[in-house]
Design goal:
The complex is a heterodimer of chains A (284) and B (272).
Chain A: H1 3-6, H2 9-51, H3 62-71, H4 73-107, H5 109-124, H6 127-137, H7 141-166, H8 170-178, H9 183-221, H10 230-239, H11 243-272, H12 277-283
Helix pairs in contact in A: 3-11, 4-5, 4-7, 4-9, 4-10, 6-7, 6-9, 7-9, 9-10, 9-11, 10-11, 11-12
Chain B: H1 3-8, E1 16-26, E2 32-42, E3 46-50, H2 57-65, E4 72-76, E5 92-95, H3 107-116, H4 126-135, H5 151-163, E6 169-173, H6 181-198, E7 201-206, H7 209-215, E8 218-223, E9 228-234, H8 243-246, H9 249-267
Helix pairs in contact in B: 3-5, 4-5, 7-9
Classes of the chains: A mainly alpha (284), B alpha/beta (272).
Subcellular location (chain A): Cell membrane
Domain ABC transmembrane type-1 (chain A): 80-264
Membrane topology (chain A): Multi-pass membrane protein
Amino acid sequence: MSQLDQSGAVPAAAENAAPAVSLSGERVLRVIVPLVMLAALVGLWAWYVQAYNIPKYILPSPALVAQSLVNDWPILGAALLVTLKITFAALAIALVGGVVLAVLLVQSKWIELAISPYMVILQVTPIVAIAPLILIYAPSTQVALLVCAWIVAFFPVLSNTTQGLKSTDHNLLNLFELYGASPLQTLFLLKLPAALPYFLAGLRIAGGLALIAAVVAEFAAGSAGAGSGLAFRLLESQYRLNIPRLFAALLLLCATGVAIYGATSLISHLMLRRWHESAIRREN
Amino acid sequence: MSSAVSMNAVAPSGKPIVRLEHVSKTFSNGTIALKDMSLTIGEGEFVSLLGPSGCGKSTALRIMAGLGDASTGRVEWPTMPHDASGKPEREIGFVFQEPTLMPWATVYKNVWLPLRLHGVSKAAARERVMSALEMVGLDKFADSYPRELSGGMKMRVSIARALVTRPRVLLMDEPFAALDEITRQKLNDDLLRLWEQFGWTVVFVTHSVFESVYLSSRIVVMAARPGRVIDEMEVDAPHPRGVAFRTSLEYGEFCRRASQSLLSAIGANDHL
């Protein structure tokens, strides 16, 4: 009955297949070009240190940094674990809290009026400035770091999810009303799925910010001993002029940040690839 | 009742299924979207609300569906069961101007939605969802996502979703206005065939004279500012209709009359 229409689907499918061939070529390039660039930079760095005889307490050679990374792994690994724990705990609480609060804000105008100004104030105040206070009030340094990281990671989740919940298609809202959907059905079957792309954008921002906040808060807190994270190891290495270890710690932080960004991007892509424009465009 | 209405009012054929009595709608900004509209639609009729934009035809349809209340006047569904809030229950299917599909859900899940909202499980809904998709010729696309479909196919999914509750009444708000002429004609033919087969009552909002004449058993012509009914005409051509009807002199004559009516509707507003 609808041959006319269905024939339209065939060219669409064929279009999708054709760029896939050139796409794989582009993908290889996408991996190779950054790797070549990396090799070139590391080579230049090694050559510079060697040629100008730079002392290792100013700029250690790449080999020395790698060596330090291996030798100091017991210390750095433990510190990384602490930082990761704080980051992910803060991110998890921020995600749950951000989504729950966003749902509440959207349900009631009064709650929104009462709460959102304070959310903004919390967001615009630099975390280093509040950290000393939090350190005083929190029962332990770990908790203080967690609170700092949470404050920073929380806002993008809240703000994006709220925006997403508010952007639900009005016609779909009418449709749900027409078929007598309960408020809970409308929330779970319509508003939350519609907010998903916004939430995921918030997640990508929050993931990176949680790590940054965990490090910054530790700088402010200056914790020491067994429970110290990468930020403390950075400071300590600086005081002791152990620059190779400082570089190694920095390398670990960078890698962690990149990994978090990669993981959140991947989650976002996997969840949206079947239907959302953002995921579709990225494939082209 | 205004003189314009009584002048050409056409009695509904069949038992009344919906009755609008002196319905008016004024929006909060003071716009009078609909003024004193009275209309009775009989069981099994295909009624078009034809008029320029701003004539309140969509507003009238939404009020019938229970999306927004009338400011004054009453809407009655004499033969339908009502839910606790007084809305006619389940026996209405509504088709919006846009397909209005959930982009994150497959075709199957989109069509399942009205049943799902009434607690019918995915498996229990299977037979009805698939038969609704078969009616619009999309049963092979149950697992596709809306973005993988053409505009016409999306509209078909939207129609299947309206049909899945097996409604007695189909309310359609300019459903094919955004489609190209060829797709639109195809969907008109398919809709007409389904209507001839199943005998629903259809209320069809459109601004196309040709579409309304081709499809309807009765045309209600409306004018804007304020939105109101100014004329009615019966299209008593026999069914099934097809290319033969669409190319007949008789069809041309109906279109001429409807156009004249519509022209006077537009002429009623000198600032247009």
